[in-house]
Amino acid sequence: MNKARKSKTVIPFPTARRSRKRVGGALADARADALRTRFSKVSEASKTGDASTPLKRLLKRL
After folding, report:
1. CA 50, CA 44: separation in Å to the nearest integer?
2. I need a surface site. Which of 23, 29, 41, 49 has the fewest CB within 10 A?
3. Chain CA centroid to CA 44, Å
4. What's the structural domain count of the chain?
5. Helix or strand or coil: residue 14?
6. Surface-to-core class of residue 34, CB atoms within 10 Å of its CB (0-12 exposed, 13-18 middle, 19+ buried)
7. Domain limits at 15?
8. Tens-digit pLDDT profile for residues 11-60
9. What is the pTM of this model?
């Protein structure tokens, strides 16, 4: 079925949908990077033994 779709002129529609998903994916990547930086700080604090205060700060932000 994919080969039949490629031969038709319906090609720009799924590419437009993919481009929209990529824009959302870029925003999701930025959010994921922010969450990674936050939780990396929390994990480092948990390794040092001072994990209660950053977790409380995160809960206050949410």
Report:
1. 9
2. 49
3. 22
4. 1
5. helix
6. exposed
7. 2-61
8. 555 555 555 555 566 777 888 888 998 888 877 777 776 656 667 777 87
9. 0.35
